[in-house]
Amino acid sequence: xxxxxxVIRNLLGTYCRLVDAGDFAxxxxxxxxxxxxxxxxxxxxxGSEQIAGLYRSITRRYDxxxxxxxxxxxxxxxxxxxxxxxxxRSSYLVLQATPDLPLQPIITGSYVDxxxxxxxxDRWRFEERRFGLGRxxxxxxHLTIPLExx
Length: 150
Prior knowledge:
This protein has helices spanning 4-21, 24-30, 47-58; strands at residues 35-38, 43-46, 69-80, 85-98, 101-117, 124-136. By secondary structure, it is of the alpha+beta class.
């Protein structure tokens, strides 16, 4: 039997697998009832279609349909808010190798995710994701938008 923490960690892992597969429609479905925000809380997208569209618009994909990345999520701390909400604070590292870029870390940062229990059942879903940027390397092969260097 999976604990609530296991279920939430599985949602986090599923996100990483979907983004590395270039399955942005899948990310939209995974976060269908959520909003994606910057670290200050400004909403960048909400709902399945907007979230999938956000990922499509900012992420480069290659001939195999993927961004040629590996997202690593670590140091996750779960903080219960109440019986229905949990905040997960995680660190991320994105590795990438392309025909023009040898394998290297390209970005680090943090996610602050809020999960909500649905209908009192032992099922959880994303309610909000906040992205924080840490250190950045060469993201030109990954993103279509410029990021400030940190």
